[in-house]
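Fold this sequence, please.
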Amino acid sequence: MVIPPVRALLFMKLESSRLHRKNIKPFCGKPLCYWILETLSKSKYVVETIVNTDSEEIADLVKTYFPVTVHMRPDHLLDLGGGDEAYPLMAYDIELTQGEYFVNVHSTTPLMSHQTLDKSIETFFNKTAFDSLISVTPIRKRLYHSDGTAINHDPHFLLPTQELPLVYEENSCIYIFSRNVMDKYKRRVGANPFLFEMSPSESIDIDEMHEFNAAEALMKLNTQTL
């Protein structure tokens, strides 16, 4: 199967609410954002990486490492965050960009490999019944709603955790979608997304300092064992 070109969308603000200057914080000897840029540069299918930023410092930094396209964030989009607020950012970038297919990734997932990224792209184009793809981490633990009711198990009959039905956590590592999905639904996830499983180790998404430390320690360990 011939896979069409895919363009990567990457959003990076200079300041983060929970971890100061997270996107460029030193991580294993490089700025945190370096690692996802390296992953994208090694992909067989990503033909362009587009960095949307509010910071000239970030814009200058990323261009020293890899050939990327930088979109400086206009004033009316400066205060946007994640989730549904990300749609105007993606719409802005896509309006300035050619191509029909996009992958949205984040600098906060430095352990994701280019092999996993390429596998997700191959999976998306092979699963023609689905209109988008989101990456997930499988979980087999006893989960509860905030009111104490069980989500995925019977508290009166405790199965071993390995026998519990799988539930999935959206891990914010990979979103694949088309221009058509964005136009139709005004979001990156369509009406029928494919759930692409990733390993817990590659799925670490850094928001807090303890996640930063854990991811850095794991990357150092992985490097030592190569």
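The two ends are 32 Å apart (CA to CA). The helical segments are 32-42, 56-65, 86-95, 114-126, 179-185, 209-225.
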